[in-house]
Amino acid sequence: MTGFGAAEGEVAGGRLRIEIRTVNHRYFNPQLKLPYDLAGIEAELRERLRALLERGHVAVSGRWIEQPEARPAVMLDLDRAKQVVRALRELKKQLRLKGDPDLAFVARHPDVLSFSGNGALVTWADVQPVAERAASEVLVMREREGRALATDLLGRIDALEAGARVVASRAPDRVAHELARLQKNVAELAQGVQVDPQRLAVEVALLADRVDISEELVRFQTHLAAARAALAGSGAVGKQLGFLAQELLREVNTMGSKANDAAITQAVIGMKGELERFREQLENLE
Predict the structure, then answer these.
(1) Can you give the residue range of the structural domain that contains 255?
(2) pTM given for the model
(3) How far is CA 265 from CA 13, 36, 208, in A?
(4) Residues 5, 8, 11, CA angle at the centre, nearest 5°?
């Protein structure tokens, strides 16, 4: 589903704006475009979005409206510290002094510890409040679109149920018509010759089994009920409805292959059209 959300707020002494856009996609496909000093939080942001958005192409952009304050970074020159410690120990040996080199004294020595003003550190905890607000706007927009899609899909289900009722109403008459046609054809072909009634009964039973679509209708109604239940629930239902749409089409195709009736054929054609539109809408649903 499509969605858009944006938020801005104070982060590390600066002001950051984050925008999130989502469009339809079969899988979760994030694309992050953040300032270089936010590279360290990409993994956390990606995982948080994965938890909130199960499917869709998710484009995230961030930019500094106001640059953050530079935080001094501590730099350690280990070689310089070793030189200082060796010198202190040599001094202790030459002057025959007691004690060990003092850490505080070593640290205070020039160049052992230094500070850089270019080491601003931005953490996920700093960015998360802004990202969460932007993501919440996306979810609100997607939920609104989802309700509209659910209403449309329920209308498709109603149309499919109406088609199934037409097929069910015609099915008994069709079986009786096929049996009458078989008996008439047998009588014409026999031309007065006595036909084994037991053999005819077997053929009638086989024909009735071939043209009967009661099982397909039961499964079809079961799948429609499952689709309704999925739309009434919460969470992502796109994949589940996609599977149900495949099964519904399978049952409709079977009904069509057994049909030898104009009304049933027309109903099947209409049901296939509704299923095609149903599946097209699923591409927009999470």
Answers:
(1) 142-282
(2) 0.61
(3) 70, 62, 18
(4) 135
